Structures
1.
Amino acid sequence: MVRKILFCIFSFVVLNVNAQNAKMKTFIDVLMKKMTLEEKIGQLNLLTPGGGIVTGAVVSKDVETKISNGQVGGLFGVIGESKIRQAQELAVTTSRLKIPLMFGSDVIHGYKTTFPIPLGLSCSWDMQMIERSARIAATEATADGLNWAFSPMVDIARDPRWGRIAEGGGEDPYLGSQIAKAMITGYQNGDLSKDNTLMACVKHFALYGAAEGGRDYNTVDMSRVRMYNEYLPPYKAAVDAGTGSVMSSFNVIDGIPATGNKWLLTDLLRKEWGFKGMVVSDYTSVNEMIDHGMGDLQQVSALALNAGLDMDMVGEGFLTTLKKSLQEGKVKLKQIDDACKRILEAKYKLGLFDDPYRYCNAERALKEILSSDKKVAAKEFATNSFVLLKNSKNVLPLKKSTNIALIGPLANDKSNMLGTWAVSGNSDFAIPVLEGLKNATGGGINILYAKGANISDDTSIAKKVNVFGTRIDIDKRNPQEMIDEATSIAERSDVVVVVVGEASEMSGESASRSLLQIPLSQQNLIKELKKIGKPLVLVIMTGRPLTLGMENEIADAILLTWHAGHEAGNAIADVLFGDFNPSGKLTTSFPKNAGQVPIYYNHLNTGRPNAGDEFQKFRSNYLDVENSPLFPFGYGLSYTTFNYSDLKLSANKLKPNETLMASVTVTNTGHVSGKETVQLYIRDLVGSIARPVKELKGFQKIDLQAGESKTVSFAITTNDLKFYNNNLKYDWEAGEFEIMIGTDSKNINKGKVQWIK
Ligand code: BGC
């Protein structure tokens, strides 16, 4: 009976979807019959009139005229409900066919209310929370007229020299896939036609995070086996979760730029993965194929269209050359029609043909933007993204009666709190740490503040970082004067809290670094403060993993906060005072030095693995540094401690259709309640291709009261053992597997099982 009812519901849903699709198809067919070739090509054109962040050399010109001429399919970088309404009005009143525009933006980590950078959010390992962050961002952004987010960025990144590591979910394909799904669900909420959902755009397809040398936009070259197993899964997860759009990346893949790569955009994305939505280029990435050496503007535009690209961002290569290419037989009308159809379908699904002003509602804007509930969420997300890296002798949490010396260039700074890619966020509303500490204590304790150092003393670095406004503010005083002021307040306090790290624009796009340390000016400050002999707490703000060897040696406690968004100061205060027990875990390895990168936990074993960190001649290692990172993937402390015991495997030999239950008992052995992310890793000991030393296959975040124990179980099937073999066949192979459960990728309890075919 139940099965019958379910079948009926299923059939009804399928019929309904089919009916809706048929209706959409008819609508678009009728519309396209009315369109001239020029109007079709016009739909493929995405422009920015400027005003947002301009990431290329070009800003679109004569945008209004082009809209009226039917030469524009969408705009981005237009911020504000009334401006969007104006542009839409132009499209639907002055263009011949009155086709509405779509409006995109880089809604990356929140919209006007800014949340922690994505790398920070990923450290929560809390998929519901991450989904909620996208849902809230969508609610706020759609209230301001937007209907398309250029997010999530799901590029796997294992090289912290690459500044855009900040924008993604770290180094792991399994975790990255979960995050991709959560973000797409959050933005789109299963129904694009609602006025509070955004169409997602997963980016940057593909492999952008593997740029050689960590230098942005640089060459990528990688085997198919690595691609399929390690880099492609999050994009695929986003497609499976129904992302409405995909953005092609800047880099080459197998020698052909992604934007003109037919294998990537058609064979893989559409044919293999069944993607039905639209593909947009990255900012002028069509034109950039000229510099890649793929031909002139006409050639590269034809290459992109033939590869399967639908929309050209900013470069206007489609707009200016496709007609000629059609006349010369270099592209087919069908390609232009297909691309146009996919863009019109997106607009249809967004409900723009029903009501072009669906997302323009001044009342909603007033109610939703920067509303108090969003601030509450911003603080919650921030506290959950922090990672406690060190806490010797339980220096943290601080008592609210402590006299605090709060020092550092990021301690009373608003401009760097939001982090990279916060295009719509206003840092004037950010809460710096000093204010956060005062809010938390009601002014009841003694907080002495000194800047202590510049973020960097290097004026040339400051100039490069300050492109969007002052982020590195070089003080008029000389460094010694600043240090003297800082040490003098440190001497008068019980504890020294130093807020140091990177300016927000030291990570993000076009912000690669060859060295990964905290700038020298701040390192000097830390060393001088150590000499005072008071407990030393470091709060580190950054957009990337840093090399923190010296800091880890001399500080008593280190709290990593990334760039935490609008509520940074309040969230940091909550954690420093123990009102919130930190539970974040790293999603990217922290190297000991920059020479170790790329560094990631799920590497292959090599034929000459080094056992442990001791140097062994003729083994794979370095003379001057160990192989292990300073802080491994999955690592993060709490104000309590957790003990793992009693690893149990339900069987030691399994048949293909059998499920292995792997469980472990976790006990909170400390004095306060806390959250712990229990991580499951598997190693395939023998395979037809070399397999990683371990791979994350599951995780559960649990809450434990002091003294409480819980058994955490994972159900493992052969699906969890699958990988792409040398023929790119996705399957599992019989043999022995190590099952590992632990608190991070290094500290694990191990067992072994055999799966037979
Ligand atoms: C970035 C994209 C972004 C686009 C539009 C590009 O430079 O690579 O991530 O979505 O600009 O702002």
Note: The CA atoms of residues 538 and 558 lie 5 Å apart.
2.
Amino acid sequence: MFILAVAGSAVGLGNIWRFPYVAGENGGGVFVLAYIGCIALIGIPIMIAEIVLGRAGRQSPINTMRTLTARSEGSSAWQAIGWMGALAGFMILSFYSVIAGWALAYLIDMGRGVFVDAGAEFATSSFQSFTGDPVKVLGWHTLFMIITTIIAARGVGKGLETTVRYLMPTLFFLLLALVAWAAFSSGHFQEGLAFLFAFKTDQFTGDSILMAMGQAFFTLSLGMGAIMAYGAYLPKEASIVNSALTIAVIDTLVAICSGLVIFPIVFANGLEPSAGPGLMFISLPIAFGQMAGGQFFGTLFFLLVGFAAITSAISIGEPAVAWVVEKAKVTRKTSAIVIGSLAWLVGIGSALSFNLWSDVKLLPGKTFFDTMDYVSNNIILPLGGILIGLFAGWVLDRKILAEQLSDAPSLVVSCLLWLIRVLAPLGIAVVFIMTIIN
Ligand code: PHE
């Protein structure tokens, strides 16, 4: 159940929507290599550290950090990990809900057969006129947030379990079927493959490595306490190392498969890989429009993407929701409504970034949406990752760490310790410094 819940958190828009377009904007091959490197050397160790902290503290991340700092006699400043995470959660949930809303809208359009026989031009103009309409984008954002709040209000128990147990495998299966379709029917599979795996450095800028690291954190739900919050539910006898490895492999495979579906379609239809956030919403309707049974499969696909987004969105809000329950002694329902409403409010800025506020820039060249995405994923999450690694590696009472990892062979634990204490925090810091110099 824990693996399913964390996989539900990890697999979401980050894999299906964000990975292909960010890889497309950053030149493909080298980005993918950097991303996989970040998953293996930074992501997995930090995920293990987060689960260790969560299971040792067994509360919301903010209170887990308070308890563990006290037990390890560390400075109370380490509690910042919990606070930063809750803040990042708001920022991420706010724009996540906007994009998930797009997926819901596409679900309905697919079902109505809007994209039957769609070509590149139609798919592009439909996307532009949809996102250009503030009322529609706001409406779908609102609906998604309401659904997420209702499920989150019921707790991390039943609803989540059934959703992940049946829908995740269906999503994987459908994704594989789409890869097969891209391989045999798109006519441009080679090109897509070459784009994702060829070592071309021309579009890989100084910022690209930061983007790769930010994507690794975002896609594994790391650096903000989501995994820590779920770790609080993990039974004593379960293996943390095995769970983290399983989840990271599943998550990476889903992302790569999405890329293998989307890029052949992009090349077959003369689209640009660097089209940005609309990439999935333009290329997939074309694919479904052209394949036999596309209306049915397209509807099913967007339905599953919607579910994958909900299971992720719940986990994004979980650190804040769990904390409000503990702190204010209110019910989960009240807490979920408060957090959901606040994130919805912030999300309005992202919803309007694609239409009314498209000229409003918070950072140079970045709309409200771009800014929320960039700052949370590329700065706050990796920063949270550094702190989590340093805390788990240097401050946390070594006995607690040893106890949590007691099922793993001692060589694995020594390597892990080295990764968590030194390599991961240093790696993140080096990427930050390189980006600043660039
Ligand atoms: N990992 C999720 C995705 O890929 C997003 C997420 C980020 C979830 C941060 C929780 C915390 O869609």
Note: The chain has 18 helices and no strands.
